[in-house]
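DM from R.C. (forwarded with permission)

"hey, sorry to bug you on a friday — could you get me a structure for this? deadline for the figure draft is monday and I only need the backbone to look sensible"
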Amino acid sequence: MKILIIGFSKIKYMPYMNFYLENINTTLNDVHLIYWNRDLQEEDTSVLAGITLHEFCCKQEDDVAKRSKIRSFLKYRKYAKNIINKEKFDYIIALHTFPGVLLCDILCKKYKEKFIFDYRDYTYESIVPFKNVVGRIVKCSSATFVSSDAFRRFLPAECKEKIFTSHNLLKDSLLHRDEKIKYGTTSDKIRIAFWGFIRHEEINRELIKKISADTRFELHYYGREQQVALNLKQYAKDLNVTNVFFHGEYKPEDRYEFVRNTDIIHNVYKDANTLLAMGNKYYDSAIFYIPLMSMRGSFMADVAQKAGIGLAVDPYDEDFAEKLYKDYSNIKKNEFVINCDKELDRVMVQYNLSNGMINQALTKE
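My reply, with the result:
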């Protein structure tokens, strides 16, 4: 079978792609991947040996208004459309809401029930035409996967039988569950760490302000630094802070090193989409036995608290740091470890079920 995976960013920023690749035999199938090189910098593609790569090169800042991205989005559509028409694939996997919407006409006409739709962004669901397009894609797909169960509310109820959950965990992490327990370092500070693409300037400014005023904590940022990160670094410099650190971009395997030096995972966001999202740091929390700090009222905070592995916070609280200190200090270590194991077991049951549905969709005649 000739399969196309349509990505919407650089390879290293699409870890959720592995959820699908793990279920495709690249020896027996001719697998292609479209990815978007947005910063025009080279990256290591050796991890995708055996896959035909199609690189769309177009400079595009990520953390800017989507309206300003329209021109590059249209260029992306043209590029992807040309690849599809030229290669004549048997099956397509659209890895994000936007490539699905941009290529809706092709997917729903030429590939009806011959594509998987990975839905992970509902930013424009308030726009009726956009929501209608998404609904049409779901109806025409052979299967639709959501990265958060909270996203199901935006999709057609009559399609619930073919909507499944794709948990954004990295299976390689499961081989490193003991990194924190066996090799974790100790500190007289409570070390809060964020890893990933550094965004959401306003709420991180608030975190930096509150944490920098409390010497019981340290705040560490690991990840790609575009304008938001540069602004935050300057903000920390202006405040003359001594307990906030920016470590720069990292390779996926580097996470296991700084997991050892982390006491709380920073997973605090405040915008419409992320308040309902389930990020991969949620799974990192359960896998590595590290408490997750999420925004109070978010879907992820609710799930984490119910599972007994997370702390619900609001950096805008005047006594934010004191509350965080008390909540962290009250964690019962043995009970927390048991809760992480239980939650990971629950996730893996759904994860394996979803894997089976991918195989079923790919082999459907």
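R.C.: lifesaver. Residues 333-363 form the longest helix (31 residues).
me: no worries. The longest strand covers residues 30-37.
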